[in-house]
Amino acid sequence: MAQETDELKMSGKVPAMITSYPNTTLATQSQKKEMSCTAHGEKPIIVRWEKEDRIINPEMSRYLVSTKEVGDEVISTLQILPTVREDSGFFSCHAINSYGEDRGIIQLTVQEPPDPPEIEIREVRARSIALRWTMGFDGNSPITGYDIECKNKSDSWDSVQRTKDVSPQLNQATIIDLHASSTYNIRMYAKNRIGKSEASNELTITTDEAAPDGPPQDVQLEPISSQSIRVTWKAPKKHLQNGIIRGYQIGYREYSAGGNFQFNIISIDTTGDSEVYTLDNLKKFTQYGMVVQACNRAGIGPSSQEIITTTLEDGSSPPENVQAVATSPETISITWSTLAKDALNGILQGFRVIYWANLLDGELGEIKNVTTTQPSLELDGLEKYTNYSIQVLAFTRAGDGVRSEQIFTRTKEDVPGPPAGVKAAAASASTVFVSWLPPIKLNGIIRKYTVFCSHPYPTVISEFEASPDSFSYRIPNLSRNRQYSVWVVAVTAAGRGNSSEIITVEPLAKAPARILTFSGTVTTPWMKDIILPCKAVGDPAPTVKWMKESNGTPSLVMIDGRRSIFSNGSFIIRTVKAEDSGYYSCVATNNWGSDEIILNLQVQVPPDQPRLTVSKTTSSSITLSWIPGDNGGSSIRGYILQYSEDNSEQWGSFPISPSERSYRLETLKCGTWYKFTLTAQNGVGPGRISEIIEAKTLGKEPQFSKEQELFASINTTRVRLNLIGWNDGGCPITSFTLEYRPFGTTAWTTAQRTSLTKSYIVYDLQEATWYELQMRVCNSAGCAEKQAKFATLNYDGISNLGYFYSDFLTEKFNSIVGSAYKTLGVNYLKSGTIPPLIKSVVQSEEGLATNEGLKMLVTISCILVGVLLLFVLLLVVRRRRREQRLKRLRDAKSLAEMLMSKNTRTSDTLNKQQQTLRMHIDIPRAQLLIEERDTMETIDDRSTVLLTDADFGETSKQKSLTVTHTVHYQSVSQATGPLVDVSDARPGTNRARSSMVSTESASSTYEELARAYEHAKMEEQLRHAKFTITECFISDTSSEQLTAGTNEYTDSLTSSTPSESGICRFTASPPKPQDGGRVTNMAVPKAHRPGRKEEELAIDFCVQEQATQGGGSAGARDNVMMAIHNNIGELEIDLWVQD
Question: Which of these, 315, 232, 312, 266, lies nearest to 731 by C-alpha position?
Answer without folding.
Answer: 266
